[in-house]
Amino acid sequence: MKKQAAALLLAVLMVVGSLAGCSGGGSKDSANDSSKAQTSQSTGSESSQAQEPSSNFNAEGYPIVNETVELSVFQYCRDADQIDWPNLWFYKNLEEKTGVHATFDVAIDSEWDTKLNLMLASNEYNDVVINRKTINYEEYGVSQEIFIPLDNLIDQYMPTYKARIAQDPTIVESLKASDGQTYSIGYIVAQDIHTGNMYFINKSWLDKVGMEVPTTVDQLTEVLRAFKTQDANGNGDANDEVPLDVVLTDFYKMSFYMFGIPESDIWVSIDDDAQVRCNAQIDGYRDALEWMHQIYEEGLVDSEVLTKDGTMVTSDVLAGTVGTMFRWRLLNHGIDEVKDQYVNMLPPSAEGKSAKMYTTMEVAAPCALITVANEYPEVTARWLDSMLENQTAYESYYGPQGELWDYNAEGKAELKGSDQDCVQYCPGVNGLFYGNADWYFSTFAVPDFRLEKAAYDDAYTEAGVYEKYPADYLNKLITLTTDENTVLLLHKTDLTNLISEMISNSIMHGVSDAEWDAFQTNLQNAGIEEYVQTYQAALDRFLAE
User: Which of 103, 238, 351, 476 is the most buried (most CB within 10 A)?
Assistant: First the structure.
C-alpha cells in the first residue's frame, strides 16, 4: 500500500502542477461517570475505546450530549493571529449544536514546543490537542500511551471524516504509526500545489533600469546592483531601494535552491537515486554561502536580513522600496495595492548548476489528538467530526455564512473579501480542517488567489525545478520507529545549531578554507552520518513496502 501511495504521490508531483497550565479536562458532567476512561498510561488507550458511552451520549444526530460536557483543548495558534478563543463565534455556535463546551489552553507558534512539552511532562493532560506543528505520536502515542489510538472511534463515530478519507486513502498513509494504528485526525487543504515560497521581481523596476527578468544567478546579481544604484523606484532618492528583501530562512533557502540544493528544515534531501544526503555536504553549498555573503557585503540584500520578520518585509513592499522578494503569492497576502508591479520569476540557476526547489507533498498532517485523560472519547470523536461537515467546515475556515463567504449560483462556498479577516469569527488555519482535492474543488469556488498560486506552480513544474523525491517523504510519509526518532532527535538540535550558526556567520563574514574544513569536521562530530543513515533506513523500508 505504501509503495502504491509513494508512486501515486510521485506521479502527482511530476505530472500535476496546479494547485499552560493545563488540566485533565476541567469540570466534568457527573452523568457521564460510567464512561470515564482510565487515566493510567498502561491501560488508557484500551479503556478509552472499550468503555460503553453513557446515556448522556447520542451516537447520531444533534446534540451530541443531552447535558453539557466540557473538553479542555490544548490549542495551536499562529503568532500573528489575534484570536479571542473563549469568545470565538465558531465555538459558541458549535456548542449550541453539539452540547460540547470547549475551553482552551493556547500556545502560539513560537512557544508551541515548550508549552506542549511541559503539558506532556506534567501528567495533567488536556483532553484534546489541536495543532499545526509536528507531534511525535510514536513517542507519546505508541511508547508512552499519552495519546490514544483513534481507528475504532473513527470507524464508529466519525462518518464525515471516514467518508472524506475514503475519497483518497493515500494521503492519510502519513498518519499511521509503527504499530499500524492512527493517533491523530489529519489536517489538509489539498489544492494540487507543490511548493512553498516563490521568487518575485519588480517588473516596473526592471523596466526603469532597462533589464530583463534574470535566469541565472550572475544576471540576478547584476539586476540587484542596478536596483541599488539607479533609483529604480524613481522617487529621487537613490538610497532607499532594497534590491532583495527577505527574512533569514527565506534568504538561505532561495539561495540554496539556485545552487541546486533543495534545502529543508531537517537539513537533508533525497537525490534522484533515492539516496538521503546532508545538504551541507552537497557540491554548491559553499558557493551559495559565498554568494549570500557577496550580496550582503554589497548591500544588495536588506542589512537587517538576519533579524527582520515577515511583517517588516511586507511594510517595505508597501512602501515601494523592494525590488525582489520570496513569498507565497501576491494576491490576498497583504500587498494587494502594489502587487501589479511584480511578476513571478523562475528560480535563477548558478553557473554549472540547475536550480532545484524543495517540494511539498499534499499528505495529511497530524492535527487533532485525544489524550488518555479524556473521559469522553466518543463525544470528542463526534465533536471533531462535526467540524468537518461541509457547512461547519466552511464556517471554521471563513466564519458565518453571509459575512466573508456565501454560496454562489452553483451551490459552492465562495469567499468574499480576504480570508485574513476570518480570525474575528473562527480558528481558520489554526483549527481542524480536512479537505482532499476532490472535496475541495467540488465544494469550494476556488478564489483568485489560490488560482494564482496554482498558475505559478504550473510554471515551476513545467520548468522542472522540483526535486524528484521530495524531502517530505522524510517529513510526512515514512514511519519512524521510536528508536529512530530518538537517534534523530539526539542529533538534530546540534546539527541545527551548527548549520544555523555557519549560515549566519557566512552571510556576515564569508567562508575561509579553514572555516569550511572545520565546519565539515563539526558535522561529523555532531553525528551527521548516523542522522543520514537513520533517515535512509526508514526511507528504504518505506519504498520496499
Answer: 476
Looking only at the bridges linking them, the beta strands covering 198-202 and 342-345 are antiparallel
Report the chain's terminal Cα–Cα distance, integer Å.
7
Structure confidence at residue 52 (pLDDT): 64
In sequence order, the β-bridge partners of residue 65 are 57
Find the length of the chain: 545
Coil vs helix vs strand at 439: helix
Rounded average pLDDT per 10-residue block, the chain, 545 residues: 41 35 33 34 40 84 98 95 95 98 96 94 96 85 96 98 92 88 93 87 97 98 97 92 96 98 94 96 98 98 94 94 95 89 97 93 91 98 98 95 94 84 93 92 86 91 92 84 90 96 98 98 98 97 88
Q: Indicate the residue type of 110.
A: S
Please name which of 220, 149, 157 lies closest in space to residue 180, comparing C-alpha atoms: 149
State how beta strands 198-202 and 276-278 pair: unpaired
Q: What is the pLDDT at residue 359?
A: 87
CA-to-CA distance for 257 and 285, rounded, in angstroms?
Answer: 10
Give the Cα separation of 123 and 288 in Å (integer): 46
One DSSP character per residue, 117-171 reads HHHHHHT---SEEE-SS---HIIIIIIT--BPP-HHHHHHH-HHHHHHHHT-GGG
H/E stretch holding 296 reads helix 285-297
Q: Cell 479524556 belongs to which residue?
A: 374
DSSP H/E element including 446: none
81 burial (CB, 10 Å; 0-12 / 13-18 / 19+) is middle
**How many Cβ atoms sit within 10 Å of the Cβ of residue 386?**
19
CA–CA distance, 474 with 479 (Å, rounded to integer):
8
Q: How far apart are CA 521 and CA 144, in angstroms?
A: 36
Matching residue, cell 531537517: 266
pLDDT of residue 360: 84
Let me know: does 25 contact 58? Beta carbons within 8 Å: no
> Residue 242 and residue 113: Cα distance in Å, rounded?
34
* Nine cell digits for residue 254: 532561495
Asked if residues 335 and 418 have their Cβ atoms less than 8 Å apart, the reply is: no
Cell triple for 334: 497583504
Closest C-alpha to 97, from 61, 146, 47: 61
The H-or-E segment that residue 411 falls in is none
Compute the Cα dihedral for 476, 25, 91, 57 and give only its sign. positive
Write down the pLDDT at residue 183.
96
Residue 368: beta bridge partners?
130, 185
Instruction: Give the type of residue at 451.
Output: L
The span from the CA of 63 to the CA of 383, in Å, is 10
C-alpha cell belonging to residue 203: 517588473
The rounded distance, in Å, linking the Cα atoms of 81 and 109 is 10
pLDDT at 192: 77
